[in-house]
Q: What sequence folds into this?
């Protein structure tokens, strides 16, 4: 059953390393980090000890950077007004939803589904950011397990991107 697979077994299939910035990173640094990893749709915010303290999504960043283009008549203008003058990651970050290496694929999916997320940070017991897991990794594992259950050859997308057998 795919739901019993541990996060540690799949978290590096697509995105080997999470994108992160320190809490005092400015908007340009956040944007550069987001651009450097186009597969990710979030940049995680860490403190000086690399502990996860927040998350900035691409949508949040775009709203901040393009806030002057949002028409005043738009209802979203209220959203942009609360960010006026915000310049640092710690000022715009959202509370992170996360998983740990020993959590299951099912746990990750439920957290993503309930929170409308496409990816989650992975943390250790002390909240250090150690990885990232996204919907594509969950889908990859689900398809592999279905193929395995049907006794067919199945493929695995590894870190280097070519397909190969998983087990």
A:
């Amino acid at each position: 059953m795919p739901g019993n697979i541990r996060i540690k077994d799949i978290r590096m299939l697509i995105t080997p390393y999470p994108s992160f910035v320190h809490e005092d990173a400015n908007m340009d640094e956040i944007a550069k980090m987001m651009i450097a990893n186009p597969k990710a749709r979030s940049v995680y915010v860490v403190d000086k000890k690399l502990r996860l303290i927040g998350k900035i999504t691409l949508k949040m960043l775009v709203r901040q950077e393009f806030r002057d283009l949002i028409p005043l008549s738009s209802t979203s203008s209220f959203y942009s007004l609360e960010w006026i003058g915000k310049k640092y990651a710690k000022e715009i970050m959202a509370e992170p939803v996360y998983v740990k290496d020993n959590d299951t694929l099912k746990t990750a999916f439920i957290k993503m589904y309930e929170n409308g997320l496409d990816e989650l940070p992975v943390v250790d017991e002390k909240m250090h950011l150690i990885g990232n897991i996204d919907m594509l990794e969950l889908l990859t594992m689900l398809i592999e397990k279905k193929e395995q259950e049907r006794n067919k050859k199945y493929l695995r997308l590894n870190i280097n991107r070519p397909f190969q057998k998983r087990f």
Summary: Residues 2-164 form a domain with the CBS-domain fold (CATH 3.10.580.10). The first strand starts at residue 20 and ends at 22.
